[in-house]
Structure formats: structure tokens, C-alpha cells
Write a structure and sequence with these properties.
two-stranded antiparallel sheet; extended; 10 strands; Ku70, Chain: A, Domain 2; alpha+beta; single chain
Amino acid sequence: MAVAPRANWKGYLKVGELSCPVALYTAASTSDRVSFHIINRETGHRVQREMVDADTGKAVESDDIIKGYEVSSGQYVLIEPAEIKAAVPEADKTLELETFIACNGVDTIYLDRPYFLAPTDKASADVFDLIRKALEEKNVAALARTVLFRRMRTLLIRPSEEGLIASTLNYDYEVRPAKEIFSEIKTIKIEGEMLDLAKHIIGTKKGTFDPTKFDDRYEAALEELIKAKIEGRKVKKKPAPEPQKVTSLLDALRQSAGGSATSSKTPAKKSPTKKTTAKKSASKTSGMSAAAKKTVSRKTAPQRKAS
């Protein structure tokens, strides 16, 4: 018998005077990943973590553990759990749709965790579907705020299939300024064959996002290692890929594009035609004397076979 999914949060979805009871369910989970226990090598027993006083080394009971904010080296302001609870905003359990934006109107760097948002009962399904359908028809997403997991969080809510996807958003102060990373990158003028080859490579590898095509090689390797240990056999180490030798960025691009020595825009050298040869000959002899011209004419003239 399948176990019903457990909701992470329950409350109300509201827009204007419309509201309905909803629940948030985890959309991405790490529960299927390979997990390990910490083991004592000598005894084979599991090891338990214990909270100890950093100075005395003695174990500390859970009731004696509180939070502290360091104001100077070794000096802390102690904060009781009741004080934190009184300071944070009250959880009103309401997701009120405050602002509507384009579905792609949020930079993906601000996306935190995704959740499925669904009605909690059949009676509220009509109102829920009306809100979802309206978002879908207008092709917009909504921003809402609520206390979630003891923090005030902003959520991006967008329509998806028969339900809604609610993604928690990072706050602006949590996202590092891009300049911290990119400021040292030098601006290089790239054009001509290099740019043509780069665009060609991108064009040949266009596709669509299919999550089933991406396998977790790390998890697969761990599973194979565990299976081999259980069966008492050794796992063969896969050879590292041999690096390709390239002498320049242009050479690397040419190899990536299939070994093409020239770009599609670079014309091949043409063999000289009779007209071109005649023009070159004319230009060479234009500055010659009359006697020299006759000598050149005799040398270049076709020889007749003797009858």
C-alpha cells in the first residue's frame, strides 16, 4: 500500500477575496541517494556524535544548549529559544499572491528550493484550479510571502500541469555580487573564424532539456562499489580519458567542430585562370623596354611542332 506524501507546510492560498486550503510538498528529495553511517573501524559499531564543551571537553546536555551571537573574540550574547520565538514574525499560514510577474521574470540565481503546491481537499479544488488556470492563461507567476520553517520567506508560484510549483527565493543579501567573481575576467575581442566555429559548435548541439538523460555517475559508482564489496570482488578502476593535445584556442575549436581547417566563411584559394595569368603577365611587362617585351613574348609563346 502506497504511503501518502507528507506535507511540509499547510495553510491558505489567497488572491483578493478568493482563498483555499493548500499544502506544500517537497518536489526535490535526496532520500534516494546512497547514505553511509559513521563506523568505528576497530569494533564495527556505529559512532554517535556528542555535543561537548570546547574548553572543558565535557558532554553538554541538550537542555543546557542555547544559541549565542559572538560580539568579540570569546564573548557571546546568549539568546534563549523563547526570545527567538517572540522576535520572529507570527506565522499566519497564508500565501497571499501579492505581485504578478512574467514566468521568466526572476533570475534563476535567486531560486532556492522547489515545492509542489496542491489543495488539501476536494472541496477546495475548484478555487485552487481557478487560480491556477488564471495564472496559466495570463502566462504569469505570482510572488507571495509567509513564515516557512521559522523564517519569513518569499515564494515564486507558477502554474505547472495540474498544480502549482512554489519555489522559495534567496534574499538579495544571500546572493553574492557577480562582480566578486567576474571582475578579474579580461575582455577579449573575439571575432572571425573563432567566433564562427564557436557558434557552429553550439548550433550542432542544440536540444531540449530532458532530465531523464542525465545520470548521476557518482551515485552509480557508489552503488557499484557497495555491490562489489558485498559480493567480495574488486571494482575495476576506469582509465582516465586521455587529454587531447591542442596548441591554441583556434586549434581546439577546429577539433571540436570536426577538424575543419577553415571556417565556412573562409573562401578556398582558387587556381589562377588564363585571364589572371594574362593580367599578371601584362602587369609585369608594362614597365619593360620594347626589346625586353619581345624576349618575354618569344619565351612564353607556345612552340610549334616541326612538320
